[in-house]
Amino acid sequence: MTAVEVLGIGRDFVSSGRRVTALEQVDFTVDEGEIVALLGENGAGKTTLTKILATLLLPSRGTARVFGVDVVARPQEVRRHQSVVFGGERGFYQRLSARENLRFFAMLNGASPRGLRELVERSLERAGLADAAGRAVETYSRGMRQRLHLAVGFATSPRLMLLDEPTIGLDPVEAARLRAEISGLRDQGVTILLTSHHLLDVEELADRVVALHKGRVVEDMPLADFTRRAGFAAVLRVAGRGAPPAPRVCKGIRVRGRNQAEGTGERQGTWTLEIEIEEWGTVSLGEISALLDGCAVTDFDVTPARLEDSFRRLYETPRP
After folding, report:
1. Residues 206 and 297 in one domain
2. Exposed, middle or buried: residue 113 (CB in 10 Å: 0-12, 13-18, 19+)?
């Protein structure tokens, strides 16, 4: 079943007396149980699109549906199917405890009074806030407030979760814990639309990537295919002593950085080399062997291509 349909969505704003287009012509779908990451530079339109799907903002044109329900025509019904996590410092009653805030927002989002207490406690536990649930939110750190936003999202048992920068403000341990929770939601059949500048979130969670640029979709493909858009499979960093490798024309690999130490001291006579490997195989391995033949290699390190490399290549390439 299709969970999200976005058909020709556009959104315009008026700023300083002139029209500004945040979304131009956006089309994509999300299947039920799928995690799709919205990628893009600041201002690409990710949050605007998320707010439209959350029924918090009206589109200027086009149609968006959540489980077949039009977000403009029947917003109340759409809200019953989904939960939205925008995060940030605001959005709570500062003098109330986390438990009190969560109880209020859960009821506001349609949670039944029956079993509400168990629902609130379970959501606090999942978000890692059980031990601090009785404290006033004004005493919370930024990371704790972010976890409380997530607890609100967990409390409504949604079919669709819209997550906008869910790990912002979290330390690496908390972020890893949250990613495990999000992955568990997918196992339960929950559909997730995720935006994050923390690309590790996308690498570990997303099934597919939809990339926006100036309000338009410029890529829509499985995560593995998008990662290959980096243009190389890995970077090999080699260090050695004595004579460095002689420049030569290679197939399947590119030498993208050379450095030979000068002067005196411990590093005298040492060199380093960066080799970009287009694709692992007999050709590239043979070329690396030939390039380094006769060299005194002292160390090497292999770094596979990451999502960040694909992202940078996509947005650093000039577009018409």
Report:
1. no
2. exposed
pLDDT at 264: 47
Largest alpha-carbon pair distance within the chain? Answer: 77
Average pLDDT over residues 94-122: 87
Q: In this structure, what DSSP letter does residue 136 have?
A: B
The residues near 209 (Cβ < 8 Å, ≥ 6 apart) are 36, 37, 39, 202, 219, 220, 221, 222, 223, 226
CATH of the domain at 271: 3.30.70
Judgement on whether residues 142 and 265 belong to the same structural domain of the protein? no
C-beta of residue 112 within 8 angstroms of C-beta of residue 156? no
For residue 209, which amino acid is it? V
Q: Find, among 88, 141, 143, 84, the residue nearest to 109 by Cα.
A: 84
Q: How many domains does the chain have?
A: 2
Instruction: Please give the Cα distance from 320 to 317 (Å, whole number).
Output: 10
Sheet holding 82-85, edge to edge: 69-70, 61-66, 2-15, 18-31, 216-222, 208-213, 35-39, 191-195, 160-164, 82-85
Average pLDDT score, the chain: 88
Q: Which two tokens mark 70?
A: 């039009």
Structural domain for 261, as ranges: 232-304
Task: Look at residue 90 and tell me if it is in a domain.
Answer: yes
* Residue 182 and residue 251 share a domain: no
> Looking at the predicted structure, is the pLDDT value of residue 169 above 80?
no
pLDDT of residue 297: 92
CB 255 within 8 A of CB 232: no
Q: How far apart are CA 181 and CA 183, in angstroms?
A: 5
